[in-house]
Amino acid sequence: MEGLMMTPQLRLPPFLERAERYFGDREVVTRLAGSIRRSSWREVGRRARRLASALDGLGLAPFDRVGVLAWNTHRYVELYFAVPGAQRVLHTLNLRLHADQLAWVAAHADDRVIFVDEALLPLLEAVAPKLPRVQAYVVLGDGPAPKTSLSPVLDYEQLVERGDPDFRFADGPETEAALLCYTSGTTGHPKGVLYSHRSLVHASLMMTTVDGFGIGERDTILVAVPLFHAAGWCMPYVGAAVGAKLVLPGPNLQPADVLGAIDAERVTFSAGVPTVWNGVAALAESTGRTLAPLERVICAGSAVPAALIGRYERLGVTVRQAWGMTEAPLGTMSCLKQTTRAETPSERHAVLARQGLPIPTSEVRIVDADGRVLPNDGKSAGELEIRGVNVARAYFGDERGDETLHDGWFPTGDVATIDAEGYLVIRDRTKDVIKSGGEWISSLELESLLASHPKVAEAAVIARPDEKWVERPLACVVARDGQSVSAEELRSFLAPKVARWWTPETYAFVAEIPKTSVGKFDKKRLRERLQRGELTIVRAEE
Question: Residue 435 catalytic?
Answer without folding.
Answer: yes
